[in-house]
Structure formats: structure tokens, C-alpha cells
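Shipment paperwork, digital attachment
Item: protein structure file
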Amino acid sequence: MPPVPPAIRRTALVRRVRGITRGRAAAALGGCAVALLAAACGGAAEPPPPPLLLFTDVTVGSGLSYIQHEFRDIPDCIFAGEPRGATGCLVERATGGAAAADYDGDGWIDLFVTRLDGPGLLFRNQGDGTFADVTEAAGLAAFPYPNNGAWWGDIDNDGDQDLFVTTIAAPRFLLFINDGAGSFREEAVERGAAVADAAARAGMSVAMGDFDRDRWL
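Attachment content:
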């Protein structure tokens, strides 16, 4: 058999390579088409929806249940055992605000709740899902003004959380400075955060911030 000329061998090789390449390309395109068809037909499973977040009312069990404002004068309510007052039969009225912070530095978030009757309440987080009312022990019960707004912040830059409270129909606002040992001193007038006179004032809320960027609230 006579030898095949080099030009013919090269032509045959080129045709063979082209055939292989075209076959692979067709196979690849076919695979893509199958994948796209499967996706279009719902072959790929959608991820499951995130689980629902459910909340449980643990107010009573955690020690945060208390009477905000109770009406006692006029009985005769629709619900048995609920005394009637000037604004209805509710034993609790809406509080003005609440503020949360780790005031004692134990790593657990504590809660201060304002009230219309008497001083606001400080609930210390006991680390087991319950709270203890430490209002008197912390020195916050000495000013029984109706109060509405509250905010925690490190006023004196000593590393612990101080508390500012607005009052309603009272002669002054309240600034409680944290002594770092679990107690507070009221120093609103001394620090220029309240006016010392007999005029009644009303504050709805509190906001703190370093507006002049001098690293002081």
C-alpha cells in the first residue's frame, strides 16, 4: 500500500479533531439544555422558608409584672373584679417609656420602666431569666415624680451607665449618676440638666448623643 501524502494526513486529522470538538460542544449544549429544562420545570427544589419566630409572654414569671396605675373609686365594670376609674376599667395604664442597659456591669441587660404614679422602677437582671425590683436599693425611689421618658448613657465618662429621666407635672427632670457599686446619686441640677424652681414641666422622651464630637454625651 503506497504511503499517504502528508497533506492528506493533515486534512484527515483536522477533520477528526473538528468532529470530536463539535461532538463535545453538542454534548455540552445538550447538557445545558437539560439543566435549563429541569430548572424551568421545577426540578431544583426551592429552599425551605425560614422558621417562624414565636414569642411567649413571660412577664409574670420573669418578675416584671406590676400595677402601673390602678383605679379604685367607682366599681361597676363589665369585667368582674375590675374597678372603674375616670378613664375606664383598666387596672394598668400605658407607661411612657422604658430603657435597657447593663447598669451594674455583670453582663446582663437590666430594665428601667417609667411610671405615672410614683418613681420609675429599676429591674435588675438576675441572669436566670428573672428580674428583681431594686428601685429603693439603688437610690431611685427618693423622687416620686410622675415620669415618662428614660435613657441610659455614660454621662461622666467613667465607664458605667447613668440614667436621665423626664418627669410630668413635676418641678425638675432627674439625672441619676451611677456610682459603680449598684447605687445612683441624683445630680440633674448640679450638672445643669434641670432647672431648680417650682414651675411644673413635662418631658415626653430623652435622646443623648455627642453632637459636638468632644467624646462627651
